[in-house]
Write a structure and sequence with these properties.
It is globular, with a radius of gyration of 29 Å. The protein is 36% helix and 20% strand. 49% of the residues are buried. Strand 7 and strand 8 form a beta hairpin. It contains 21 helices and 29 strands.
Length: 756
């Protein structure tokens, strides 16, 4: 019997239903397989590399030790000797940050292209031209015995971790398909040299100024390069100390927030080291032993970059074929060095570098050659004084350790439990007799050589000032009657002046109130520029009604660079267009190349004085700059100025260089984009690239009450709970307790001597 026509659709519907159920079942099975595979991959490559933080391990140390992890994941190391403590510091740093350590030494040594390919070649070339690895090798060769012993202990700890965890390496090594080479003392010194380079690379400024002078008016160009604004607080990244009489507790308070380029993870790795004669806590540089910023039981210290000029360009009369060049009337032979740079997925690149008595040739243009002399390249003597700093008990021992510090030149701010505060410049600062260092010197004459370094005892130093306040914010700390010539790319006075004004307003300060100062976003410069534009508008004929709304926004603005306001963006764009007009007047055609840190102070001084040789009508220049700012801002954020938001333009992204690029999950392995308050001239100095790399406040009334926060977290592992767990506190301007004695331990790893 044939099925009825009515039953056929039912049978078809039934068959389709069965088929769909089968497809759905197979799909669910496939999805389950994919999910299980994903979980297995996540476990194998993400979870397995997480460090062992509890239980017991064996290691080649002299006696039993412990590594206690607190609520933030910070390691508190207790060991029987200083060398054991440093060994374990190397071990825990590798636990938390091994791939970052490898990436940093590659960045410093010019070996990124080996793992990232041609896109990293330019970075490698820049590092190789400065010969950083060769310098690190030379530094290691002349290290004092005690310094080398400390460094080698740290190195052994790193390598012990690597050798015992080769099957559990961080996921970045697996994704990029390589394994780390053994760590060495040279690698740690190389990372130190990377920081030296980041904080002192000023030779490009000499060529910049040279270009401005080639087409410009010398007198006008010089006004754009002042050494000081004349308003710097004495004695000169933010760091300050308050005497106990100004604090509610009666004990000194020290605060610091060094400004560096953002990274994920942070450049800093917090650690606590305990051993006989050593009890210190704070921030270490990843890959470098000891605590760089922190406190022990007796003293606390922080630092800011001095920004003194420690690099000079010398124009060499050089034959690039033979390497012969002139010096003081005779021919000398440059040394030829060849660097072969492996490039992943492409042929190796061969770089040839001529090295004269002044240093490597780093720039060439139209047959002109410039070599750079740099204090970091002076390896006749070298010391690593941070272990001595970590163990110092008073001002005299602290200064004795700083006397061995060679750079990068820093402002050190100090406080101690006895109630003293102090300030000391440290590092090698060259003495120039016949040139200022702001322009390339004639390398062939022999007349512009350095005359040694400024003696340590002659460097700026202050101890227990009558005001009870010490403030540094990268400003020029050298008095006008300083006996040595001074040059540098110093910061304008705005940040330092604001900090001092806030601290001087009252006494009775509590440690946690320092955090509010660290996140202050008032810009005296942008406020002054806004008021000048409003005054210019009020004096004008007001024929053009276009800027009227913008003027009212600037008129009622309080100078706070808040992310949710329109006025800060308008003021920043006004600064940009006003700066272009000023530089174009001084050096036609070069308005886009002028970059100098003290530029805001130079612009404000010109605006106050309004010299006639620059412009006949400064108001006209200001209003034209305002018109250009409005036009640019409307292209960025629309025609309605009141709807503009500074934070939309000042948006921060902190991205892991590898993990943030992963499909689907990469967006969870970065911070942002988030709108940021602040500017280059505010205490909370923020840009889309640079900001406070940590914040710390030390209270000698209660060392367990020390405040500390990183932009991200302690760990470099993406599946760790401490990968970026500090971000919310950092963003809100809060901090966490850095426990010293009363440690709320979450996990303890016991380390037994190998074979014991």
């Amino acid at each position: 019997m044939q099925p009825s026509r009515r039953s056929r659709p039912r049978r078809l519907q039934y068959n389709l239903g069965v088929l769909l159920k089968k497809i759905l079942r197979y799909f669910n099975i496939l999805a389950a397989i994919v999910a299980v595979a994903a979980l297995l991959l996540l476990y194998w490559y993400g979870w397995r590399p997480l460090p062992q933080t509890s239980g017991t391990v064996q290691a080649p140390i002299s006696a039993a030790a412990t590594i206690a992890r607190d609520r933030q994941g910070i390691p508190h190391i207790t060991a029987a000797s200083v060398e054991d403590a440093l060994f374990l510091q190397g071990f825990v740093t590798a636990q938390d940050r091994l791939w970052q350590m490898d990436a940093l030494r590659r960045l410093a040594g010019g070996a990124l292209a080996e793992i990232f390919g041609p896109q990293a070649l330019e970075s490698d070339l820049a590092a190789r031209r400065l010969r950083l690895r060769k310098l690190a090798q030379q530094q290691y060769a002349v290290l004092p015995v005690a310094d080398r012993r400390a460094l080698d202990a740290y190195v052994r700890g790193v390598n012990y971790f690597v050798s015992t965890n080769r099957d559990r390496l961080p996921v970045e090594f697996r994704l990029l398909g390589y394994e780390p080479r053994p760590w060495s003392g040279v690698d740690s010194l190389l990372i130190g040299l990377h920081m030296f380079r980041v904080l002192t690379s000023t030779w490009e400024l000499e060529r910049q100024k040279m270009r401005l002078l080639e087409t410009g008016d010398r007198a006008l160009v010089e006004r754009l390069y002042p050494l000081r604004s004349g308003l710097e607080p004495a004695p000169g990244s933010n760091g300050w100390a308050l005497a106990g009489r100004l604090a509610a507790t009666g004990k000194p308070i020290l605060a610091g927030d060094p400004h560096l380029e953002y990274s994920l993870p942070s450049i800093w790795h917090p650690v606590h080291l305990r051993a006989p004669g050593l009890d210190v806590i704070g921030a270490a540089i990843t890959g470098v032993p000891c605590v760089i910023i922190g406190h022990n039981r007796d003293i606390a210290w922080t630092m800011t970059n001095l920004q003194y000029d420690v690099q000079d360009l010398y124009e060499e009369k050089l034959d690039p074929q033979t390497g012969r060049y002139l010096f003081a009337g005779r021919v000398e032979q440059a040394q030829l060095e060849t660097e072969v740079i492996p490039v992943r997925g492409a042929p190796s690149f061969e770089l040839k570098i001529w090295v004269t008595r002044h240093g490597p040739v780093v720039a060439e243009e139209k047959g002109r050659y410039w070599a750079v002399r740099w204090t970091a390249a002076d390896t006749t003597s070298y010391g690593f004084p941070f272990l001595d700093i970590n163990r110092a008990r008073n001002w005299s021992e602290f200064r004795a350790a700083l006397a061995r510090f060679v750079g990068p030149a820093q402002n050190f701010v100090y406080a101690d439990r006895e109630g003293h505060i102090g300030y000391q410049v440290a590092g090698r600062l060259p003495i120039r007799k016949t040139h200022r260092g702001d322009l390339p010197a004639d390398g062939s004459s022999g007349q512009h050589e350095w005359q040694g370094y400024i003696p340590f005892e002659d460097l700026p130093s202050v101890f227990d000032p009558p005001s009870g306040i010490i403030v540094t914010a990268n400003q020029n700390p050298f008095p006008t009657n300083y006996p040595y010539p001074v040059n540098g790319s110093f910061a304008p006075h705005y940040r330092a002046a604001q900090i001092r004004a806030l601290l001087s307003a009252r006494s009775g300060w509590r440690p946690e109130e320092m955090l509010a100062i660290q996140k202050d976003v008032y810009s005296a410069f942008h406020h002054a520029l806004a008021r000048a534009a409003v005054a210019a508008w009020d004096r004008s004929a007001k024929g053009d009604a276009g800027p009227a709304d913008a003027i009212e926004i600037l008129r009622t603005w309080n100078g706070q660079m808040e992310k949710d306001q329109a006025a800060p963006l308008l003021a920043v764009l006004l600064e940009s267009h006003f700066r272009k007009a000023v530089v174009e007047r001084a050096s036609p055609g070069n308005s886009l190349i002028y970059r100098f840190e003290i530029a805001p102070a130079a612009l404000e001084q010109l605006l106050r004085e309004r010299p006639g040789e620059w412009f006949a009508d400064w108001d006209e220049v200001l209003l034209k700059a305002l018109s250009g700012a409005l036009e640019e801002g409307r292209r960025m954020q629309g025609r309605e100025v009141r709807r503009w938001r500074w934070g939309y333009a000042n948006r921060l992204v902190i991205a892991h260089p590898v993990l943030s690029r992963l499909p689907l999950i990469g967006k969870y392995l970065r911070v942002g984009p988030v709108p940021m308050s602040g500017a280059t001239t505010t205490v909370k100095q923020t840009t889309t690239r640079i900001g406070p790399s940590l914040r710390t406040v030390v209270d000698f009334a209660d060392l367990d009450g020390t405040w500390f926060v990183l932009p991200t977290g302690v760990s470099g592992h993406p599946l760790s709970g401490h990968f970026k767990d500090q971000w919310e506190d950092y963003y809100a301007g809060r901090a966490r307790r850095l426990e010293f004695d009363r440690i709320e331990t979450r996990r303890v790893l016991r380390v037994e001597p190998a074979g014991g």
